[in-house]
Amino acid sequence: MRRPKLGQHFLTNSSAALRIVDAAGLSASDQALEIGPGKGALTTEIFKRAGKTVVIEKDDALALRLGRIFPNASRFLVFNRDFLDFDLASLGDKKFVVLSNLPYAVGTAILQKLLAWPNWDKGVFMLQKEVALRVAASAGADYGILSLSVFLRAEAEILFDVGPESFSPRPEVWSSVIRLKRREKNILSSAEEDVFYRVAKAAFGQRRKMALNLIAEAFGVSRAEMERHFEDLGLDFKSRAENISPQNYLKLSRALSAS
Ligand code: SAM
Predict the structure, then answer these.
(1) CA 38 from chain center: how many Å?
(2) Which of 81, 124, 205, 208 is most buried (CB neighbours < 10 A)?
């Protein structure tokens, strides 16, 4: 029986499954982590390529079934758990390649939890197309706090789209596959990150207004002072949140942290 809350739209298009797993570039020296393996559409291909495959599946019956399909305990480990409650530190220090056809309802929550976890270097994810566009955007209407929070930790690229006919049951929306390459080091210190989010929240909080005024107000600095910061970065004083590149949000945060 389908459990809509668990976002159980199973991938039935085997060539899409192959493309997703190929995009992760797995080899025998890799350990893979799959979130929400379901009936194993991706798992079968992952298991062929990776040295070790760890899967986390919330649905009891599906987790049990996977344990039977892949009984090789030294190369395959199934956790019947909710990923959002799972203690990732228990997986050890060796880096993972992460793959998932993410359940729609908790896709961004899962992504945020992954971004906070340092032990992965690459990930290939299928998401609702509208969410994938927001994750990978660096300007325009889809660009926002989600894009910037991903940018701080990873480089994102959209690879291809997958239509509703590729799933059973059919979802109402299109999906997109994205690849994330985790940054080896954080680009901002944690104090600068706090400033980065304050800047981004102020600007995107009222995305139709001029970011300069919104940021000046949020930081309690004069318009003249904020104009100097914008001028230093070559930013138009009339820029709105969605016209400021991620790199310029970084630079603004560093400047405001230093001042
Ligand atoms: N990977 C399979 C595929 O591509 O056909 C299934 C994908 S389906 C969109 C999402 C899967 O994630 C389901 O098997 C569902 O039971 C599981 N799931 C949903 N929420 C989860 C959570 N919080 N933690 C772990 N698994 C979850």
Answers:
(1) 20
(2) 124
Convert the pLDDT of each residue in 11-26 to its tens digit: 999 999 999 999 999 9
User: Domain extents for the chain?
Assistant: 10-182, 190-258
Distance CA 221, CA 161 (A): 44
148 CA → ligand 1 middle, Å:
26
Whether 154 contacts 180, CB under 8 Å: yes
User: Which CATH superfamily hosts domain 190-258?
Assistant: rRNA adenine dimethylase, C-terminal domain (1.10.8.100)
> Which one-letter DSSP state was computed for residue 94?
S
- Among 57, 114, 170, the mutation site with the greatest number of ligand 1 atoms within 8 A of its Cβ is 57
> What separation in Å is there between the alpha carbon of 62 and the centre of ligand 1?
9
Identity at 192, one-letter amino acid code: E
Q: Is 39 helix (H, G, I), strand (E, B) or coil?
A: coil
CATH class given for the domain over 10-182: alpha beta
Report CA(218)–ligand 1 centroid distance (Å). 40
Model confidence pLDDT, tens digit, residues 39-86:
999 999 999 999 999 999 999 999 999 999 987 778 999 999 999 999
Those residues with Cβ within 8 angstroms of residue 254's Cβ, 6 or more apart along the chain or in another chain: 188, 192
Residue whose CA is at the smallest distance from ligand 1 atom 5: 10
Q: For 206-242, write each residue's pLDDT tens digit.
A: 999 999 999 999 999 999 999 999 999 999 999 999 9
